[in-house]
Amino acid sequence: MDHQEQHLTSSDMLTDIVIGMSDGLTVPFALAAGLSGAVSSTGIIVIAGIAEIAAGSIAMGLGGYLAGKTEIDHYNSELKREYEEVELVPEKEKEEVREFFGNLGLSEEVQQQAVEEIAKDKKKWVDFMMKYELGLDKPDPKRATKSALNIGLSYVVGGLVPLSPYFFTDTPIVALKYSAIVTLICLFIFGYFKSRMTGVHPLKGALKVMLIGAVAASAAYGVAKIFEG
């Protein structure tokens, strides 16, 4: 009987899209809803919305770049330290390798053979320590730039969804109704696939994401109406 593995394999790109799209759908939606309760022209909302999308995408993209750069710098720093330890205290490092295989339940003889085999090649030895001692995989050297672009563009795409109805009508409240329908549907779909990707119950995850967007927009609209009054 064939067995098919069902493990989740989520790429860095999908993670970036989730981050950018999540805020892109929610923040401009809340901003447009708030302004709809305070102004009488959709032109103002469109201008403010585009400005927010531009600023938000740059800020989110920069955050993704810095996170990616920090990951690379951290890996390189630990790699340098590991090379130094292999060079200066090889017996201690060998003992750590032996402990790793011992925890797997291998016999002392097999442990010793594995240690000797790994220690023959310094690069492979260090790579082994990085992965299994520190739990660090070598990051993509272009990760920071890719992350910035993925998150920034996802934010723009997400932000244009709630703003799009304001391009086609002069009445903010009418635009808000269509914006709410379109955005909540997109939030539900986005939440569904995000939940499937992260292993959460899809319908519960979709409703949760949609509810968060609805609450944020409702709060912004309510605050605007309070101050207007």
Give a structural overview:
It is a single chain. The longest helix has about 45 residues, at about 40-90. With about 230 residues, the protein is an all-alpha fold. It contains eight helices and no strands. The radius of gyration is 25 Å and the shape is elongated. The relative contact order is 0.19. It has one domain. Residues about 5-10 have low confidence and may be disordered. The protein has helices at about 10-35, 40-90, 90-105, 110-120, 120-135, 145-165, 170-200, 200-229.
N→C terminal distance: 69 Å
Number of strands: 0
Mean pLDDT: 82
Q: Estimate the helix proportion, in percent.
A: over 70%
Biggest beta sheet attributes: none
Tally of DSSP helical segments:
8
Structural class by helix and strand composition: mainly alpha
In the predicted model, the low-confidence regions spanning at least 5 consecutive residues are 3-10
Number of domain units: 1
Strand content: under 5%
* Topology as a string of helices (H) and strands (E): HHHHHHHH
Radius of gyration: 25 Å
**How would the global form be characterised?**
elongated
Topology, please?
Layout: H1 12-36, H2 42-88, H3 90-103, H4 108-119, H5 122-133, H6 143-163, H7 172-198, H8 202-228
Brief write-up:
It contains eight helices and no strands. The protein has 229 residues and is mainly α. Helix 1 (12-36) runs antiparallel to helix 7, helix 1 (12-36) runs parallel beside helix 8 and helix 2 crosses helix 5.
